[in-house]
Amino acid sequence: QEVTALREQGLDMAAEIEARLDHPDDDLSHATDAEVVVALHAMADRAEVAADGWRAGRVCLHGAKVGIVGAVNAGKSSLFNRLVSHDRALVSDRPGTTRDVVEHTVVVDGLSITFLDTAGERETADELETAGIALGRVLTDDVDLLLVVRPLHQRCDDATEALVERIRSAPRLVVGTHLDRCDGSPHEVDHAVSNTTGAGIEDLVAAIRSAVGAHEPSGASVVLMSQRQHALFMEVGIGFRKAATALASDVGPAVAAEEVVRALERLGEL
Question: pTM to 2 decimals?
Answer without folding.
Answer: 0.56
